[in-house]
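User: Hi! I'm working on a homework problem where we have to compare a predicted structure to a textbook description. Could you give me the structure for the chain below?
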Amino acid sequence: MTWLITGGAGYIGSHVVRAMIEGGEEVVVLDDLSTGAKDRLPDGVPLEVGTVLDRELLDRVLREHAVTGVVHLAGKKQVAESVARPLYYYHENVEGLRVLLAAVVDAGVSRFLFSSSASVYGMPDVDLVTEETPCRPMSPYGETKLAGEWLVSAVGAAHGLATAALRYFNVAGAGSPELGDEGVHNLVPMVFERLTAGEPPKVFGDDYATPDGTCVRDYIHVADIASAHVAVARRLVSDASAALTLNIGRGEGVSVAEMVRVIGDVTGRTTPPVTTPRRPGDPARVVASADRIRGELGWEARHDVHAMVTSAWSGWLTRHPLPPV
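Assistant: Happy to help. Predicted structure tokens:
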């Protein structure tokens, strides 16, 4: 097997690349390097620089590298930005996927793993979100991920692809310091950035219908996300008729305020947070049921929240100087 990993030089993608290689797979990466970086990739991994919107490039890469499966991680993922720029998000995330799938079908590639998101659920009124929970996304970003799932499923059924859509919950942590999350749109690096600057962390809204008023999320270590991709890829190889939709989470809700406290404990910087207005598109609570992936693949997350924050902080310290406490 040779897997094309789109977005493989990014935060999640670079972890998936390493996990796939450690699992014995051949990989090639396609990344436009808009948020990824070449130095995230292990030596010897082929990198093709470009976008999934470039059909000519896709045709060449699939042919020259004899690709037999695709892990599609490339895309735009900022909820608030998607609210402000819905046309951009639909073009990048939905049209980009359409172009990629057309190239995959024409090249005879028969396995396709799609990076989806818990944002497809919106704000479900349930304690734990199962894969059968109705999808009512609250942002254009979530809409593009749900539309992507529909497109992958339809193409898989029509053209005989084994497919999977993985609905990630809130990703944090680092598998090694050099692979830490550089984007400051996720909670953990966002808090790190404020602490590094000697400023209090920001909490976006404290008036949600949750125990402490802040959003509740299911945080999962990026190394667990990566190991899930390996398990799912193996299923796609062994089952040519696979059509999976799977939550990737821990099934444990942690509020933003609780996570900020954990970050303070790990970093030793316990500056009280300041509350700012809610961000558009943020639901109050989204926590996964991980029963299906456990039953289907025997997979489950191994890392807790403290491990996520500790590993992420180690990575942050390698790149950002700290002011005196």
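For your comparison, note the following. Residues 174-217+251-317 form a domain with the UDP-galactose 4-epimerase; domain 1 fold (CATH 3.90.25.10). Residues 91 and 163 are 22 Å apart (CA to CA). Good luck with the assignment!
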